[in-house]
Amino acid sequence: MSDNYSSNGAFRPGRGMGMGRFGTGEKVKPASVAGMFGRIYEHARREWPAIAAAIGCVIAISLLEFIVPQLTKYTIDRLIPERRLGELIYIGGGVLGAAVALGALNYVSSSLMASIGQKVLYKFRNDLYRHMQSLDVSFFDRNRTGDLMSRVTNDVSILQQMISSSMMQLFTDFFTFGAIALYMLWIDWRLTLLLLATFPFMILTTRLFGRRMRSSFRKVQESVADVSDHLHNSLTGIRLIKSFTAEDYESERFSERARRNMDANIRVVRLRAAYEPIIDLLNFLGLAIVLVFGAWLAINGEMTIGTIVAFLSYLRLLQNPIRHVSRIINTIQQSAAAHERIMEVMNTKADIVEKDNADTLPPVRGHIVFRDVEFGYSREAEVLSRFNLELEAGQVTALVGSSGSGKTTIAHLIPRFYDPQAGEIEIDGYSLKDVTIASLREQIGIVSQEIVLFNGTIGENIRYGNTNATEEEVAAAARAANAAAFIEAFPGGYDTQIGERGVRLSGGQKQRISIARALLKNPRIVILDEATASLDTESEQHIQEALALLLKGRTCLVIAHRLSTIRQADRIYVLEQGRIAESGSHDELLQRRGRYSQLYEMQFPQPGPAI
User: Fold this and answer.
1) How does the average pLDDT of the chain come out, rounded?
2) pLDDT tens for residues 500-510?
3) Overall pTM > 0.85
4) CA 23 to CA 318: how far, in whole Å?
């Protein structure tokens, strides 16, 4: 469906009218950090055995960290005054044992969290990719390929560090924080309350800088997407760039995007550089409170020196959450910005949707009817207006006309890449909106001028028409498409790598592979959209022979500028400005001396009288 119409035909503002690329006009509330953690939990909760083991490690780590300051206090207050030298070896062994145990527990917890994190990322990335696959063609019309690639790869990967290490670090710190805060209150509530008085300022500072960092990271992610999009376009169009000697021009454009990314990163660094000294100042303020007030209590005999030393150790553990947050806020806010960009896609709803009770389309004869169809990509650009067309089953119907007359739009409406804003399209009496999309498209084969081949082997690209096809069936489809001769001439045969977009093949070879792919699918309806427009005469002849076999007994819609390719069509429709100007067979239209005759004479001018 176009950007500007809803599924029920009502006009809605589109991208060109100030709305965002992803939504359908509704303003989506940005995802919160809490929402991000909630979604991570939804993905991670199935890994509860590993999570339980990691939590057990956290509890053990907290207990060990609690014990070490107690050993210090006991040494200072008991062993040193009482000169109990024999017990010092046990104290040293206890500290070293605790250090070894802490190392082992940290290793286990980190390994478990890394495993959980990778599984969560796997689910995140799969969910995002599957959702993108479920969206309709208009979504991809509105959005840049490089930006979508960046969301699936870069934005999901950014979550990895936070899930694998930062979340465990935060959980460990805050569990330890709660336990030690209670113990410190029990030792001396006055000193503890004075110390905790600095924490609200730390939290407010973190919130203030966190919001600004998140906004800045959002700009970083967007600038990375710009760089990725430009890189994708320039690499796929490298031949065009070199043919126009535009290397310097493209380098300048890339440099400008890279500069915006650099500036965005510098803003983030400056925010972090301002944030960390403030947190350090508040941490030192807490240290000063413990030293001054604790020393005063010790001088008055209300606290031992060992207790002060233990208090200082616990202070370090108590400040760890804030200290660590100040370090990983960078990761948290970057992840939050990445999560927002991911959820923009996940929250996007497809315009082309099936009814809840949609029927499975049975094998069709291929009788297609357009009835009072209206369609436009925007209100200002109406393509079809009260359009009526009938394609007889088992016949070849051709569409000709000027560029922009609506030929390709008609081809896109049949497989329901878009929905009309009004009117009805039927196949064998079934409305397209009443049947499942999969059962409709399974019976349609499309061969277009814009050939799409994937980086892989020739056999893999042909088998895309039927992934369960045997090697014999693939070879048979290639022979039927007049492609077997050149395929078998390659040293690797059907296992020959064709490169990205089939760059190692000629235009005619690529087109014959696409026809073999369509033959292997064995569709009931075939759409040929300028299938031979850019080919030389010899290649066109080979492809016409292949098409003759492909079209046999099938309903076919042919869109062509070359009128020589449609002379044998059962019926030809001439389109002008989204309406049918005339129709008939090739000979009938030539006799009428109308628009078709004008187009024919332009392509095949008759020689003038001899002078």
Assistant:
1) 78
2) 777 788 877 88
3) no
4) 45
- Evaluate the CA torsion angle 40, 43, 44, 45 in order and state its sign: positive
- 435 close to 480: Cβ distance less than 8 angstroms: no
Is the pLDDT at 10 greater than 60, yes or no?
no
Has residue 139 been placed in a domain?
yes
The C-alpha atoms of residue 310 and residue 192 are separated, in whole angstroms, by: 13
Q: Across the strands, what pairs with 447? A: 528
Domain end residue (candidates: 346, 380, 412): 346
Question: Quick one: pLDDT at residue 542?
Answer: 64
Handedness of CA 97, 99, 102, 106 (dihedral sign): negative
Q: How confident is the model at residue 222 (pLDDT cuts 50, 70, 90)?
A: confident
Rounded CA separation 24/3 (Å):
7
* Contacts for 232 with CB less than 8 Å, ≥ 6 apart: 145, 146, 149
pLDDT tens digits for 97-130?
888 988 898 888 878 877 887 888 888 888 888 8
Give the separation between CA 414 and CA 356, rounded to whole angstroms. 21
Cβ atoms 535, 511 nearer than 8 A: yes
Residues 161 and 269 in one domain: yes
Domain final residue pick, 346, 378, 410? 346
Record the tokens describing residue 578, joined without a space.
């989204």
The CATH code of the domain that includes 587 is 3.40.50.300
Q: In terms of domains, do 44 and 133 share one?
A: yes
In whole angstroms, give the CA distance from residue 3 to residue 25.
9
Q: Are residues 337 and 391 in the same domain?
A: no
- Report the distance separating Cα 230 and Cα 147, nearest Å: 9
- Asked whether 521 and 487 are in contact (CB, 8 A), the reply is no
pLDDT band with cut points at 50, 70 and 90 for residue 538: low
| Nearest-angstrom CA–CA distance, 442 and 415 | 9
Question: Using CA of residue 9, residue 13, residue 17, residue 18, what is the dihedral sign?
Answer: negative
Would you say 412 and 406 are in contact if contact means Cβ atoms under 8 Å apart?
no
Which of 289-293, 350-354, 395-399, 544-548 ranks highest by mean pLDDT? 395-399
CA dist 460 → 399, 466, 498 (Å): 32, 10, 10
Residues 557, 568: Cα–Cα separation, whole Å: 13
Residue 52 belongs to what domain range? Answer: 30-346
Higher pLDDT, 390 or 295: 390
Q: Yes or no: say if 168 and 287 are a contact pair by the CB < 8 Å rule.
A: no
The reply to whether 394 falls in a domain is yes
CA distance 406 to 339: 40
* Same domain assignment for residues 300 and 367: no
